[in-house]
Design brief:
The protein is of the alpha/beta class. It has 9 helices and 9 strands. Helix content is 34%, strand content 20%. α7 (177-185) links the parallel β7 and β8 (189-193). It starts with a strand and ends with a helix.
Length: 227
Amino acid sequence: MSFLTIGHRGVMGVEPENTLRSFVHAERAGMDAIELDLHLSKDGALAVMHDADVDRTTDGKGPINEKTLSELRELDAGQGERVPVFEEVLDAVRSPVQAEIKDAAAARALAEVMLRRDLADRVEVSSFHDEAVAEIARLVPGVRTVLIASRWKSDVVDRAKAVGAATLALNIRRLTLEVTEQAHAEGLKVIGWVVNTQDQLRLARALRLDGATTDYPEIRRAGRFTA
């Protein structure tokens, strides 16, 4: 089975995160998929940004949901990049995409785009929130979903199964081989995040993970040779 390497917000270790520049770099580096984050703007646009506000990653201030898309467009997201919307990313790269949603409202907006552009095969949808995973699965027949967790209890595999997720994306600093084996026994894949060093890559292999999310393109190259 191949080991998947997913570019975290593009390749945020070397480019401004969640920008077209970062996504294009990730694709050119050969990442198997590109991960990004979605928030709704005040006027309902699917803005690509991790945080709920713009303070950390742009030269602006305030919550995304209090700004229109036009207002978001005026911000510098790093090295002159602008805050993209989801469909711009789809047009800028051809790679598979893993889109993280924060709530059920974002799920509904994403579902509209996925159905209109027939994206169930290309776009995998992830979330920390069980209800958001369940909502996108209800709205988009055949969509592949991922339940994310940083801290979890012994029921994390059962939670993933309950919402129909095919994959668990788990914090590698807390992952154990027992969890991986339990997930695999139930037919689930397990992705570790974030894998940014050779030691973490070796750990991912030792944990028998199906793949890893990384900030750095060189992890993709190293992953091809790490047993």
